[in-house]
Amino acid sequence: MRIVQAVFGVFHHFELACELHKRGHLERIYSTWPWSRLKREGLPHSKVETFPWIHMPEYLLARSGVDWAWATDHLGYANALAFDRWTKWRMAKRTGECDALVAISGAGLLTGKHLQERGGVFVCDRGSTHQRFQENIVAEEYRRWGVERAVSDERDTVREEAIYAQADAITVPSSVSARSFVEMGVPPEKLTVIPYGVRLENFYPVGMPAVDRFDVLFAGSVGLRKGVPYLLEAFARLRHPHKRLRIAGGLLPELKQVLGRLPQEHVEFLGNVRHAQLRELMSTSHVLVLPSIEDGFGLVMGQAMACRCPVICSTNTGGIDLFNDDIEGFIVSIRDAAVLTEKMQELADDPARQQAMAAAALARVQTLGGWTEYGDRWEELLRRLTGS
Fold this sequence. Notes:
Elements: E1 3-7, H1 13-22, E2 26-31, H2 35-38, E3 48-50, H3 55-62, H4 69-92, E4 100-104, H5 109-116, E5 121-125, H6 131-144, H7 154-166, E6 169-172, H8 175-183, E7 191-193, E8 214-219, H9 228-237, E9 243-248, H10 253-256, E10 267-271, H11 275-283, E11 287-290, H12 299-306, E12 311-314, E13 329-332, H13 337-349, H14 351-367, H15 372-386
Parallel strand pairs: 1-2, 1-4, 2-3, 4-5, 5-6, 6-7, 8-9, 8-11, 9-10, 11-12, 12-13
């Protein structure tokens, strides 16, 4: 079984590529990041080809701290089209060397069709909810906070929907993602849920939370989509003499517009952090809170659990596919600051409960075996699709 992958940047696709490579199935992976960034992902250079010429300028603009949405939208769309044409050209030069293409959503429309015409299989891997569903729910959140800006480029949404229709199968990381596709009219038999794993060699306990304070952690893109305003409101109501909320991640433009209206006492905005620092933050926090409005599967949940940190997440994060409510963490409704406060207060008031939940979180994530189970499920799906 010969598999080719296509991904913008890295995401979770290099985890999958490593699993397929271990099993002898990976032909190559195409990425829009340069080899200088990808060489740390654990694959031999011979298995990786790159097309970084448009994505890197887009990435640097997005990281500049200036709202370049008008430019990054155009660059993002141009990158998707050019990358697809390039991967089609690269695969056409290797006719007969691929049984299936696994492309991250937004990539592979022309390449997937090209492979299908030659008897191969095209799998669209979507890391979140259906693009149109995501756009609708996040646009609703923007309206709630009075933010006037487009959630995404409509051209990207139209292209995504064309890819969903073209693909032989669609993979998603959570049941909430799968439900969003069904709600948008995609046949359920076309969908397969494969939850993400955790790199246990990168995430493990390296410390303990302080006994004389209560530390809450958020990790991810700091924006309205992740429900950050509800966390700030909930944390402000939390009763503890020595409390702290640490927010790790880049501050998005739409949140900057509303931040002045939100409580920020005892809150630290850390910006983007490296894995080593994130591992320490998770290990020394009493709880990670991820109150996302839309989030196909929050990778930080499993990472926190691997660092012995329990999780409070919303129903729209994929947490239900990762852990058990009220055992390794809590799963709450979206936009419910009062319940977020209640659950944080439970852990703050009962250190023994927090410690038991932390131990259960670590035990739970260790049973998943890193990314091994993820690779097993993918191998089973690809064998079924290709008849190998």
